[in-house]
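I am going through a labmate's work and have reached the protein record below. What it holds is a sequence and that sequence's fold in token form. Please read both lines and tell me whether the tokens look consistent with the sequence. Do not assume that whoever made the record got everything right. Thanks in advance; the entry in question is below.
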Amino acid sequence: MKRRSAFFTIVAAGLLLFNACSKGPTPEESFQAYVADWEEQDFAAMYGRLATESKEAITKDDFVERYENIYAGIEVHNLKIQTNPPEDLEPDENGEVRIPFELSMETLAGPVTFSFEGTLIQEEQGDESGWFVKWDERMIFPQMEPGDKVRAKTVKAERGEITDRHGSGLAVNGTAVAIGIVPGQLGDDGAEAKSQLADELGISVEEIDKKLAADWVQPDLFVPIATLPQGDVERIAALMEIPGVTKQDVPARVYPYGEAAAHLTGYVGEITAEEWEELKEEGYRKDDVLGKSGLEQVFEERLRGEDGGVITIESEAGEEKEVIAEKEPRHGEDIQLTVDMVLQESLYNEMKGDAGTAVALHPKTGEVLALVNSPAYDPNAFVLGLSGEQWEEWEGDPKKPLLNRFAQLFAPGSAFKPVTAAIGLEAGALRPEEKREISGRSWQADASWGNYTVRRVTDPGKPVNLRDAFVYSDNIYFAQTALDIGEEAFLEGAKGFGIGEKIPFAYPVKASQLAGEDGIQSEVQLADTGYGQGQVLMSALHLALTYTPLVNGGNMLAPQLEKSEGEPAQEVWKEQVISEETAELILSDLIDVVEHPKGTGREAKISGVTIAGKTGTAELKESQDDETGTENGWFVAVDTDDPSLLIAMMVEDVKDRGGSHYVVPKVKKVMGDFLRSD
């Protein structure tokens, strides 16, 4: 009886103590405060809420460091903890309160969840009396014991590859050669070896010394200094002759076609601190690479994939005890383009040395067969490590190899005349057989034009109809046609060709324009617009697309960059932009531009192939009398018997080099080679 009385006395005392403590934070409130700090990953504040016996078992610094290292290592984010206290929460015979909780978090190995319980005890700490958490390793992971370690490993996703229509790689996962030093093998003349290495690599000895001074460097460890492409065989062999210098194969993004596809593929690079801050919520890590330009950037989300990972618990003896979480990597998507790299290289080689751009399409499907920029850079240099010297060379090159011209706008000159003719025919403002009486090589509408005149290169010495105007590329004829059409109808007709709109295309290309923001401001500007001058600006891609209605019954096609399964399906951007009759008429006239012995495109004639084409020479100068200006030359051509290739090429600075006649043979060469091989 006395024992029972004593037991009731103890319990009563415990209840009195529990109730007395209820004047301060309750156990639920105390644990909820601990959980709030936990969700914020404020580990120092968490430590302040631990019971005395827990603090005696682990120091604050060790506690904070343990949590920080584990959570950083497994890449914890979106940490959430739900407490589930029982309704009849009371201390047990030891004065302890247990509150179940469920934890969920995202990690490098995917979502991790577990259920456990927090144990609290009432005690005094200094001047504070309340409920404190009894902590041990099981609150990190329930499977853990003292001395255990948490191990995390990222399983990298492979970046998707970019290939051409035939499967040839444009951007692939390959290997490069890391050139480095094993310090212990430098020998007595290490300074000389480093000097030789610096000279060969185009870097300073100070850069080499900085890498050799890293904390992790040991005499027998390989210290990477630079990375070279596998194909640089002779240079690598020469480097291997230097004492202490050795090599290792390392994974690398490789661009097999180099300059020929540089602006198309772009390149990848290491993520910067600023980029990581912006993208970390999308799963990027500080050691990731991402697309910096070109298709590597455009298709970044599809190419990058998603890393996998595994989290394990390892015993003090180094043995794996349990796998906490595991996620397989999701490799990036491989993307096959419509581009034909044989054609791409052929165009690039024809243009090499000149500044300009070229676009090739399949005129019946809209498939983009080539997007060429000249000159260009080597994208491999950005991946392997671009020297300051090389960057300065590219930056200072007046031909601007870093500029992506196929995404830019240029005055199309006379290559725009088919658009003017189409608008005039559709508006009823142009009668193709009607001959205009034009005298001489210059003309103005009236005296209000002042000293300004429209000039033509050739005076055929006879009245000119539409066919003649195309053959001789008569600026005066098309200037007069533009005035007959009128500003409003011309603007409306240009909209029909998508001018002023963004092209529906995966690769970002600037929108073309017929005039600036203020529109067509004068009769002179309207006249100049008729032959592709004034303020007309077009990309080579858009200009090429305006020729597709001529072989598609009046429909203007949308460009396609990704190869589809099976036979390509034609995608129409602008349906019936012109009538079938208008299309046939203009196409016939453009055939004469090539076939006629005096046609401006006569140099494009290919035996056994019927080519339609239009030349263009765009003047770039401050005024009509400016003698210091330059010229860009254009030629757009399409085979017409069984249309399979349409090329638009522009070469800058063709003044005193034949104007557009400098460009025509280049297009002919590429077109002839392609059609014969096809």
Summary: The two ends are 108 Å apart (CA to CA). The first helix runs from residue 2 to 21. The mean pLDDT is 93. Residues 304 and 414 are 43 Å apart (CA to CA).
